[in-house]
C-alpha cells in the first residue's frame, strides 16, 4: 500500500496529521491607466481620447478631463496588464500623431 487510507480508523498513522496543499492561485494584478495634466493639450482633444479609447460618454469624459486639469492627474480606468498597456500605447500614439504632449501612464493598483 503506497497511499494511506485517511478515512479508515483502523489504520494507525502514528498521530501524523496530513494537510492538503493550499491552492496556489493568485488574482492577476490590476493596473490603473492615468492621464497627466499639461499646459498645451487642448481640453477637447483629451475629452475625445476619453470617449474613443476609454468608452466614456461626453459627461463622464468631461468630468475626468477636468479632474486631470485641476488635480494634475486622473484615472481613466482599471485593466489587466495587457489591456492597460494597449490603452497607454493608443493614447500616446494618437497624441503624438496630433502633436500634443499628452502623457498617459499605468500604475499597479
Ligand atoms: N490643462 C490642459 C489645458 O488647459 C487640458 C488638459 C487636461 C491637458 C487633461 C492634459 O491630461 C490632460 N488645455
Biggest pleated-sheet summary = 3 strands, antiparallel
Strand order of the largest sheet: 2-1-3
Mean pLDDT: 90
SSE class: alpha+beta
Oligomeric grouping of the chains: single chain
**What is the gyration radius calculated from CA atoms?**
25 Å
The H/E string reads EHHEHE
User: What's the β-strand tally?
Assistant: 3
* pLDDT < 50 stretches: 1-6
Helical proportion?
A: 25-40%
Whole-Å distance between the termini? 50 Å
Bulk shape: elongated
Please give the count of helices. 3
- Give a list of the ligands: L-tyrosinamide
Strand content: 15-25%
Written overview of the protein:
- Helices cover 39% and strands 17% of the residues.
- It has 3 helices and 3 strands; from the N terminus they run E-H-H-E-H-E.
- It is elongated.
- L-tyrosinamide binds next to strand 1, helix 1 and helix 2.
Topology (elements, then pairings):
Elements lengths: L30 E6 L6 H12 L3 H14 L1 E7 L1 H17 L5 E6 L1
Antiparallel strand pairs: 1-2, 1-3
Helix pairs in contact: 1-2
This protein binds L-tyrosinamide.
The site of L-tyrosinamide (TYC) has 13 residues, from β1, α1 and α2.
Name some characteristics of this structure.
3 strands, single chain, binds L-tyrosinamide, 109 residues
In short:
The protein has 109 residues and is an alpha+beta fold. It has helices at residues 43-54, 58-71, 81-97, and strands at residues 31-36, 73-79, 103-108.
Amino acid at each position: 500500500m503506497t497511499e494511506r487510507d485517511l478515512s479508515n480508523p483502523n489504520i494507525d498513522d502514528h498521530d501524523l496529521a496530513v494537510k492538503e496543499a493550499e491552492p496556489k492561485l493568485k488574482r492577476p494584478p490590476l493596473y490603473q491607466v492615468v492621464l497627466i495634466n499639461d499646459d498645451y493639450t487642448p481640453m477637447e482633444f483629451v475629452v475625445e481620447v476619453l470617449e474613443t479609447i476609454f468608452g466614456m460618454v461626453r459627461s463622464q469624459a468631461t468630468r475626468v478631463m477636468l479632474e486631470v486639469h485641476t488635480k494634475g492627474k486622473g484615472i481613466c480606468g482599471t485593466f489587466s496588464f495587457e489591456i492597460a498597456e494597449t490603452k497607454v500605447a493608443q493614447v500616446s500614439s494618437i497624441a503624438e500623431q496630433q502633436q500634443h504632449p499628452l502623457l498617459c501612464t499605468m500604475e499597479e493598483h
